[in-house]
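Model: Ready when you are.
Researcher: Fold this.
Model:
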Amino acid sequence: SRRRRIGFALWMLGIVVGVVLNILFTLAEVLLSKSPGKMADAIILGALFAFPPLVVYISIPKILDRFDPEPWWCLAMAFLWGALVATGFAGMINTVVAIVFTQHYGKEAGELVSAAVSAPIAEESFKGLAIFGFFYFLRREFDGVVDGIIYAIFCALGFAAIENVSYYARSAIQGQNVLAGTFVLRGVFTPWLHPLFTSMTGIGFGLSRESSNRYVKALAPIGGFAIGVTLHAMWNFLPTALGEQMGEMFIIWLLLWLLFVAAFFAIIIALVVRKGRTIRDHLKDEVLLGSMSQQDLDLVCSPFGRLSCTFSWRGASGRSFISAASKLALSKWHTMRAMKGQKRTISADFIAPLRQQM
């Protein structure tokens, strides 16, 4: 509980500083433009293009994470961190890097270093801090790889939404056709690239949470972060380096990345199915103990269990039962792994209370 309070205080501090930085960036973008009034209108228009699609984007990870969904307040914290903190700090670092390299090596060098080196490192670092926060300060809400991916997706969607406001605003200044093209590229074809990059860090922390091997626990987050930064740098490098010369090659480049995203979602689905099997395996003994029936077990492990409770007599009580049973299974899973590694885990302390709650 003390660790959770410290984590919340650090989150609030980051949010406050992030809000200030985002306000300063927005004011600078408006006041330093050739037509401040036109730019202000363009930013409002950019927000109208950036935020409504979030309803669709956010619903997809919520649908995928069906067996033990994360609390709404955790998802909101991840989203706000990405939208306010990661954008604010990464924007500040990228701006300073661009200015320094432009002054010393020219505009093209400044853009290339900022986009292909500074942006991947700074953006993935500050988005990754959100995942580390859940991993360290809210350990009860972080069970494994799937949780790491879900937190990463929500954080990255928050980041991308604010970033898109700026992209759409600049495109709107250039004309409606440019705005439409930018929206199709960023809002339709590539909205999942930021979640893909950041999910590598989420997978790393998830593997660390699941493993009892000290080398995996230490190195998996570093490896995941490195892969995320590398993928981000690859995406930014070629279009920035070639500029208008990218031409038809960009279509092939885009298709390649869409295949990456498709593979990414296939991996998520496989991991969610694995999580469901883990929950079932660690609840079978509860049927033998008599704390739940076989029908209860089937309800908990059904992909549509929560939905069926919502539209049946079970209602909120049924959803609470599924939540307690899922957390009980995952606590037993963590405890079993800890015992194999001859270590102790706080998850063991939650087994009896969760069984009683169930």
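Researcher: Now this one.
Model:
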Amino acid sequence: MSESNESISNYIDSIYQGYQINSLKQYSTNRLINVIANRYANLCKEENIQLDIDIRDIDFSFITDSDLTALLDNLLENAYEASKISSRKEIDFVIDRYNEKYVLIKVSNFTETAPKINGNIIATSKENKIIHGIGTKSIARIVQRYDGNIEYKFFKEEHIFRSTVLLKMN
């Protein structure tokens, strides 16, 4: 196990063994995904953002804990930040199987403004471009590493932005 995976594993274990276990909702049988989902559920609750979570039972042994964390954190963080300033505060987070060989991850949120999309990278709307915009590049690298695909789409009529990730299960 790499050092970063061991740190993540230790963090997850500390949450599950500590007092916080009683407050964790079971969204997934995967402990890492469950911790991430609970983190964003709590953040969204604090900001009055409705977060709908639908996570199917999937074997994530094909992806490292650090890659899974970076992928989900970046997808959810982008939706969370956009939802905080949106008039309609809703996020939809889905993890499911697609065919037998792929994992499908979809994160949708409302936004009044269409993001600038260049291929599989979203241009940051934040002022300091040097420290922002790294997340979508990280997502793209992870998706490529797992022979996957990323699609960003803005539905103009509904004001919905959706990130859809397919990862090939090996």
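Researcher: Key takeaway?
Model: The longest strand covers residues 90-98.
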